Amino acid sequence: MEEVQTATALFTNDAVVLGILICLLAAIFYTSSLTTKFWTNFYKVIPALLLCYFLPSVLNSMGIISGEESNLYYVASRYLLPASLVLLCLSIDLKGIMRLGPKAIIMFFAGTLGIVFGGPIAILAVSAFAPEIVGGAGPDEVWRGLATVAGSWIGGGANQTAMKEIYGASDELFSAMITVDVIVANIWMAVLLIGAGISDRVDRAFKADSSAITEVKESIQNYRSSIARIANLTDIMIICAIGFGGTAIAHFGSDVITPFMETKKEFLSEYRLTSMASSFFWIVVIATIIGLFLSFTKMKKYEGAGASKFGSAFLYVLVATIGMKMDITAIFDNLGLFLIGIIWMIVHVLVLLIVAKLIKAPFFFVAVGSQANVGGAASAPIVASAFSPALAPVGVLLAVFGYAVGTFGAIFCAQLMQYVSP
After folding, report:
1. Residue range 80-100: average pLDDT?
2. Which of 27, 155, 320, 350 is deepest in the core (most CB within 10 A)?
3. Which residues constitute the domain of residue 322?
4. Predicted confidence (pLDDT) per residue in 350-399, tens digit
């Protein structure tokens, strides 16, 4: 007798599921943009990014859609992610970042170093009294999941997903790590927003000169106004060509490099560099390099037509497909992971404060430098605008720069965490 196949979800057609996810994202972004008291207060408590992960996971848990039965995550991670990396890196304005002054750059990289070394320090600290928390085997090795947090806290969602694919963390572990990532990061963001209200006192304690902030504000305003324009159809088609053309080159390069790396697996395994034999590793790296290269060419002008907005849209579709695969109850089985995340964040904060004290950096640079790493383009502008709405682009600029260094910084951090893991 022929076996009858039964669907486990209400909607299994990927076209329908994609429509549901995009409508869900649109609703989140629309309500988060409203200025009414209810929605303003709601999104102060519940970050929009958390909803982008959480609501698709609720639909998955309720059996309305299924991450297991859908191919959307594969499509988004292989096609939309590299296109997003190209377009986000395309908008990097290195000259603009330099105009922010050396202290802004120093604090950004201080935040990056705090995360790179905070991960292995947290593992060492926890393994000293509870090694079972940082153990695991195969795809459930905790360091693999923590590698995704490193990607998020240095670069953002795109880098986080890249680390998942490169290091092969299981879906269950990744679900728990996303929750740790979002909750710990947003607790710290809340602290920064409170700090923005007393930034004058903090600057006096650090003996910092905040007059440079005015110059930063003016230079960013001038830069943004000089490139901004309304995109026409030609602009849109060229932006799509840049993103997906870069994706094509990244896939082609990966197809050439990966077979060669597979012949060197013994050597790579000896030095714990097996990720370099992953095709996805090279897709991500090549896409990032392409975006950086194009940022020095005339293609960069398409940022004025909204190239990074397209990249962000692709990224949030990817975020929603990740949410489809989430088990929202996973964190309750891994409460020890929160301890790792908190210690990690404390190291990040300590490095920032020590460096800020040494160079007498304004608290604004501390806050934005931190959020450009930890929160990325989703929350860095929020923290920057807490000081002054006109300064929001500073957060965006540094956060986009984080996309470029995020992949490489997270890979280095992941290798360190692998070495120190029990």
Report:
1. 76
2. 155
3. 73-420
4. 999 999 989 888 888 899 888 888 876 556 766 777 777 557 667 767 77
Extended strands (E) in 117-250: none
The Cα 100–Cα 397 span in angstroms is: 10
Residue 10 lies in a domain: no
Q: Is the separation of the CB atoms in 52 and 103 below 8 Å?
A: no
- 246: tokens are 């870069």
Task: Read off the tokens for 234.
Answer: 């030609």
- Please report whether residue 220 resides in a domain: yes
Task: Give long-range contacts, CB 8 A cutoff, 24+ apart: 205-209.
Answer: 206/356, 206/357, 206/360, 206/361, 206/362, 206/363, 207/360, 208/356, 208/360, 208/361, 208/362, 208/363, 209/360, 209/362
Dmax (CA) for the chain in angstroms is 81
Q: Identify whether 55 is part of a domain.
A: no
What distance in Å separates the CA atoms of residue 422 and residue 411, rounded to the nearest whole number? 19
Dihedral sign (CA 8, 13, 19, 21): positive
Q: Are 392 and 381 in contact (CB under 8 A)?
A: yes
CA distance 224 to 243: 22
What share of the chain in percent tops pLDDT 70? 84
Decide: 326 and 175 in contact? Cβ < 8 Å. yes
52 occurs within a structural domain: no
In degrees, rounded to 5, the angle at the alpha carbon of residue 293 between the alpha carbons of residues 397 and 297 is 85
Query: Both tokens of residue 295?
Result: 């940022």
DSSP letter, residue 65: S
Q: How many angstroms from the chain centroid is the CA of residue 272?
A: 24
Structure tokens at 322: 């990740």
Determine the pLDDT at residue 4. Answer: 40
- The tokens describing 64, both together, are 């309305």
* Residues 6 or more apart whose Cβ sits within 8 Å of residue 23: none
Neighbours of 97 (CB within 10 A): 17
Letter for the amino acid at 260? F
The two tokens of residue 213 are: 């902030």
CA gap 87, 243 in Å, rounded: 6
Give the total number of structural domains in the chain: 1
Is the pLDDT higher at 397 or at 177? Answer: 177
Helix axes 363-374, 392-420, angle to 10 degrees: 60
- Cα–Cα distances (Å) from 123 to 120, 153, 184, in that order, read 5, 16, 16
